[in-house]
Amino acid sequence: MGSPVQGAVGPVAGQSAGVDKAAPTRRGTELLLLGFAAFVVTIALMLVEANQEQQLSLRIVWYGLAFLGLFGVAHVAVRRFAPYADPLILPCVALLNGLGLVMIYRIDLAMTEKAIRLGREINNDVPKQILWTTVALALFLGVLIVIKDHRMLTRYSYTFGLVGLVLLALPAFLPSVIAPTINGAKIWLKLGPFSVQPGEFSKVLLLVFFAGFLVSKRDLFMAAGRRVLGVDLPRARDLGPVVFAWAVSLGVLVFQKDLGTSLLFYGTILVMLYVATERAVWVAVGLLLFVGGAIVAYNLFTHVQQRVANWVDPLATYADAGGGYQIAQALFGLGTGGVGGTGLGAGRPDLVPLANTDFITAAIGEELGFIGMAALLLVYTVLALRGMRSALAVRDTFGKLLGGGLSFLLVMQVFVVVGGVTKLIPMTGITAPFLSYGGSSLLANYVLVAVLLRISDAARRPQTGSRPRPVPQAPIAEAHTVMVERPT
Amino acid sequence: MNTPLRRVGLAMIGMIILLLANATYIQIIKADAYREDPRNQRVLLEEYARQRGKILAQDGNGQVQVLATVQPTNDRLRYLRQYTNGPMYAPVTGFYSVRYGAGGLERAEDEILNGSDDRLFVRRLSDLITGRDPRGGNIELTINPAAQAAAYNAMTQAGFAGSVVALNPKTGEILAMVSTPSYDPNPLSAHDGAAQEAAWKQYNNDKAKPMLNRAISETYAPGSTFKLIVASAALEDGKTKDDKLTSTDKLQVGGSELRNYNRGFCNGTPDGVTMEVALSLSCNTSFAQLAADEGTDKITAQAAKYGVGDDGLSIPMSVQQSCLGAAANCMSIADKAALMQTGIGQRDVRFTPLQNAEIVATIANGGERMRPQLVKSILAPDLSEISRLSTDSMGRAISRDSATQLRDMMIASEGKTGGDGKRPGLNIASKTGTAETGNDPKNTPPFAWYVAFAPADDPKIAVAVVVESQDVAATGSKLSAGIGRATMAAVVGGG
After folding, report:
1. Is the peptide bond before B316 cis (omega within 30 degrees of 0)?
2. Which residue in A112, A281, A348, A394 has the most chain B C-beta atoms within 10 A of its own C-beta, making it the best mutation to test that interface?
3. Distance from CA of B386 to the nearest CA of A (A)
4. Rounded to two decimals, what is the model's pTM?
5. What digits encode the pLDDT tens for the residues B83-100?
6. Do B37 and A113 count as a contact with CB atoms less than 8 A apart?
């Protein structure tokens, strides 16, 4: 596949000088914003060090520069392999990842203090997370280099779907030696010193599969079924994908007790189905199934009942085993933080269990206050909306569907985790994208961003010469539009 | 396909807005409820995690002694409060406990020590910028460590329960404030909850009441030391120390007889004695009669000028009110019988040791009463001075001439007083007192008082000692005088 790829890049590279004037790549903006992100992260680290009464030294500046260097490499790769990619996406990711590292380091300090007090072994997470960030950026580079055009993913959509499904189901069927139950969920694989959550990767893989599948079968879903009371009901056999998504989600819930992934997966598939078919009735059907599934799950599983009870009033179940202690502590932290927060490094986010993974947003809300929390949410919004914008601008339906799905996945994940921490919805164990400690989540999210960048590159890349051959799966309707175009 | 994408985009914005609205509710509207929830340890931890200020005292040579400090720890409270010479200084420093709150100066000056006082605001600005917890200011005491140690050691070595208060008569500075038996505040500030509880229970179940600060929170019948007030009233009324008083062996007071200590005539003569002799021999009949002659109003007014009946005095710990009558009518004396008994410090009259120290300090200061104070200066965390004690006159209790006469009478009294610790080079003016207590006074252990100042011609220290005597035969001179003299000698020396 080497030579055709070279050929595809060739003309673009050759014309770059002329193209730069016509359609700016805006890579300079990206570099400037990356510098700004590195600056913010360095200041945050400095505040943590000052408040934790660590020695303030030039060391911090070196850390900041190393951080900038790491993302500088990513920037150069984007410049080389996706020059027209959206300039805001990478800086948003860098900012989130950097703040996450600072928070994980800050919680490490608190945990070290506790470990010394209790005479336990000191276990710092931040070196591991830095390693994971580096690995994730390498993977990011790899995805950008290997996938020259996001449309080539459609060729492997069924493979991705199968692999995604296997990865998702794997921990549930493996013995506890390899797949232990951690925090009540059986979603981990233990490989030597490392633990991975294969489900994180299957999110992206299954999304790619669904985008490909929906695009190829789109016309089928568009076909009307019976009309009842002015609403076009889908045909029974077209319910397949919804039922499939529903079944997989329920399976994750039942066998792995992972509410978060289950919710995330199902919600995203539903939205993609809606985008592909442009029919809201799918959402209605999906929500009905969700409500049904939720009621069944609530009645069958005590852990679901407990989550709901903890959500309704975490202070009432405060002292129960598996009760609202964690959420109550998060709320205490958020309340203590108030509008302006306690200051980075000056709060007590370590009082909340799992402060550096699922509850890292509570830690940020406590130390940076409502202002910091709002800023964080807005960075996520900018990131997701830039992805959505790329999806709107890209010309092929697969790109639109995948871009839209990935962007929604990000927001959905933020909604589920922040909503859970702030008692908007029941708490489901899930990580905050780019912030939380955890290699699998980080790697998967960097793959997601690489794909988004690839789509946005395709969306903004000026069309030159003959258009690439039409996508085989493109619906006839689109081809028809080309034919009636006037030659003027 | 773009229309549904746009709608999904709007839905995403809607989801974020929902999160923001909910965060507003949690972090702004409900913030106080969550912050103040008793299960939220954050606020408590924050207060206890502050680097609390030190409590210091400077001795005569300018050496600073640290009475209370903090030790950094590895636990959540971050700093452990530690007291050097805990029991000796416990009545001054008080205690600081996560579980049981604070007492003594730790409570009275909490805002300075924990750093939240407004006077520390400017110095706290740099901390505010970084959001760092404010550090506490330091308190330097007026306590003279030598006097405190001398008084405490004298009391504990003799195994006495009681109190010693020493003042600088010219400034009102409290040089020593001892209460025995005492307690060690260190276990109360331990971070181990069980250790705190054990110490708290032990101190509170102890019948000897080690946590009671006898110097300012307990009152005792002043006994013969009250004769100083009666003498003051008479001197202010124009009498002199050489005026004759009755020396009768008994007075009919109400339904009972009032006798002298030796049950005989004062000075062995029925012909009357001078006030000076009567005071030096502490004749009950002479002063009971003198009090009756002066009348309730003059005695009450004179006592009030010395500060008896003052409510709300704080040093900065609040001081128990000293009274002439029963608690309900603090400054009233019921009738003539009560007046005569009050005149020799019996019946309902009750003074704190600090009150009695104030009276001798006033006499030592030529009649002008100075406000007793315990805090010499408030220092910022970097030990720069924020405020310094300003001496405060609380008015003239007696004229300079009366004070001089009283001094001479007290010098004579010291000459008649036995007990340990007399020093040839040290000219002391003093008065002893033995207050009967209980319903069966003759068989109940008395309170033994000794109030004094030295050197008599240029007073540098005034002291009040009270011993809750276990010995029925004890008198003030035997028990308390030695302790008082040792305390004064620690400050003014003497050969």
Report:
1. yes
2. A348
3. 25
4. 0.63
5. 998 899 999 999 988 778
6. no
